Amino acid sequence: MVIYDSSKRVFKLDTDNTSYVMGVTEEGYLGNIYYGKRVDTTDLVYAMRIGEHPFTPSVIPGEKISFMDKFPMEYSFDGTGDFHANCINIRNSAGQEGLELTVESHNIYAEKRKLDGMPSARGEGTMSLDIVLSDKILGAQVILTYTVYEECDIITRSVKVANTSDSAFYITKALSACLNLETEVSDILSLHGAWARERHIQRSKINYGSYITESSRGEPGHQDSPFIALLSENCNNEAGDVYAMNLVYSGNFTARVQKDHFGKVRASIGINPERFCWKLGSGDAFETPEVILQYTCKGINGMTRNFHDFFRKYIIPSKWVDAEKPVLINNWEATYFDFDDEKLVQIAEEASRLGIEMLVMDDGWFGHRDSDNSSLGDWYVNEKKLKGGLKKLVDRVNSLGMKFGIWFEPEMISPDSDLYREHPDWILALDGREPGLCRTQYVLDLSRHEVVDYVYGMIYKVLKSANIEYVKWDMNRPIAEAASLPLPADRQGEVTHRHVLAVYELQERLTRDFPEILLENCSGGGARFDAGMLYYSPQIWCSDNADPVERLMIQEGTHLVYPLSTTGTHVADSPNHANGRITPFNTRADVALTGTFGYELDITRIAKEEREMIPAQIEKYKKYRHLIQTGDYYRIASFRENGRYDSYMVVSKDKDKAVLVYVQVVTDSNVLTKKLKLYGLCPGKKYVVDGTEYLGSTLMNVGYIMKPLRGDCQSVVVEINCVC
Ligand code: DGJ
Fold it and tell me: How far is residue 533's CA from residue 348's CA, in Å, rounded to a whole number?
């Protein structure tokens, strides 16, 4: 529900359990009054504490700057006295930066407006509010859009900047949102990592000064994630206040938490302003990415469940949310570049016999690519490897009863490629400097329409040429030297955002022209795991590290925000190719169970006993697939925290079924059993676990007793069924 109380000049946005309240001052400034548990009144102006700001400009004009530095501005602006980390700044044609925004009008309407060229949450059944702010001197309009998703306790926000003046100006910063808080919060939760170690959870204290998590790599990167949450003191998995923001964006971002000298906390998120500058011509508009905002008093698990429900209902393509996606085998870690059609068919034959449903041909099928040194951009089949062409191979795989998927890296170009030889100017590069290579490749200049069209044309042709039912879209280097040859000097600050917009356009075209193709995003593992990508692809390859122990931590962090069904998880070789760890085949499968589930090893070569375990693993995955895709996820124990074991469970929405995963990473000597307190069951219902009947309240309060497992890296999956 969205209310505007004109007598008090108060906006109030209500979800089922939360309220978000803003007020307009005498001078027209939009202030944030409250965000938290639902309140059923608009009598809240007192909480803006105008009287406490002794320098209110309408009362004491001589101290306006002091007011600006104190007031909890809803969308804070730079250069006119708010010295905190601000959301927006604009440079005029005279080179001066600064603006002042006041409320001009507002509009409340059903559903929501789709963002221009960018992914955003679907809006069925929602209500939205536009608050139009303006700076009359600049001729700038800044429209703040809020959409309320009542049942998920989520509000989305985005901002549109319009130039209503006669001349161009430059947006040097346009974040998507800020939140003004105070004593409610004391901790920060964010996600950090590296290649093969993505999205490890970090919890830190909010101290005076700024905490920043951000990327300037042209994608979120392995290192940081466009997510941040602020927690109340002692907030734990099940209880405590959480304020979370997740940006629907796949490029450079910044998320910042700043505690000022008054102890006030401002958190903001949006496109990273570093090296960003957008020229806005007269009559033009610029849109920021959308941010998904939530408050919950139900602790970290509560935040996770809201995000999961929201992603499933409003972000992930609806077609795939409940779909039974095929169990796949990917040849990357099985063969790397060393394969031909015969090898792939051998893998497919063995895979189909064992119940695997799709073969994905990874990197190395095009141009003359036998290593990562060549051929990106030459998206035509290497017939030396695939004799008789792609269709022949796909038909052979299909005749085994298996689907076929293919790998692309559309944003990249190798110096050793026909495409580069023909168009050496199609790359991002700084004038006069030798462009830097990474994995021996350059980044295509996707700010040029002819490049986008050309690349899409090649992909389209391949996808039309055979019965391809899955595409893995990879991106294996960050963007540096973000400069474009044809763009004028005052538009060079637009290049990285234009790249992201082009990726969205390409994926929009691909999913529109080939609606039956299952798209999986990937970026050197999981460097581009974000809500923007999930809008196009229901799943993202989580990490190049499929070692089950490392995966426990990667998946814990990923599932903190994103649904289990979105995480690309495969059973891979042991010793693991990324870290050399040796683990049991069973544990590798149990850890992959809570994701998309597939295999990535040479099943023609693994031990016979392991191969013969595959049908039962697939059967187990299929048994729990629906529950895992649709249920509520609860974290029980974290190996990252305790250094010994990990446990989580998924409970069906009707609370009649649950599955518990337990992984003992380090074996315990002299410990017989372990007590695990379960979550999310119905206290009064009876459940059967391991043949014994328990009340839900017993399992949740007294706990389930896990029998000891012998040895390191052992796992067990426990089924919990209601007998009511
Ligand atoms: C990085 C991906 O994460 C891998 O799965 C694989 O597709 C390689 N790229 C191929 O180059």
Answer: 29
CB 11 within 8 A of CB 21: yes
CA of 363 to the centre of ligand 1 (A): 7
Output the CA 474–ligand 1 centroid distance in Å: 7
Give pLDDT tens digits for 295-305.
Answer: 999 999 999 99
CB-based contacts of 353, cutoff 8 Å, min separation 6: none
* Residue 160, token pair as written in the block: 């549109």
Chain segment 532-567, per-residue pLDDT in tens: 999 999 999 999 999 999 999 999 999 999 999 999
Residue closest via CA to ligand 1's atom 11 equals: 363
CA separation for the pair 262, 277 (Å, rounded): 32
Nearest atom of ligand 1 to the alpha carbon of 600:
5
Select from 525, 522, 493 the least CA-distant residue to 252: 493
Verify whether residue 474 is a known catalytic residue.
Answer: yes
Burial class (CB in 10 A: 0-12, 13-18, 19+), 186: middle
Q: What is the CA radius of gyration of the chain?
A: 27
Ligand 1 centre to CA of 332 (Å) is: 7
544 is catalytic: yes
Q: What residues contact residue 293 under an 8 Å CB cut-off, 6+ apart?
A: 20, 154, 155, 156, 157, 177, 179, 243, 244, 245
Q: Which residue has the tokens 């949310």?
A: 321
Choose the catalytic residue: 135, 187, 341, 544: 544
**C-alpha span between 94 and 411 (Å, rounded):** 37
Pocket test residue of 219, 361, 544 for ligand 1, highest count of atoms within 8 A of CB: 544
Ligand 1 neighbours (beta carbon < 6 A): 332, 362-363, 407, 474, 476, 522, 524-525, 541, 544
Cβ contacts of residue 485 below 8 Å, gap of 6+?
425, 429, 445
For residue 575, is the peptide bond before it cis, meaning its omega torsion is within 30 degrees of 0?
yes
Q: The pTM is what?
A: 0.97
Alpha carbon 230 to chain centroid, angstroms:
18
Give the tokens for residue 601: 């090893």
- Those residues whose C-beta lies under 8 Å from the C-beta of residue 33, and which sit 6 or more positions away, are 10, 21, 22, 23, 44, 45, 47, 48, 72
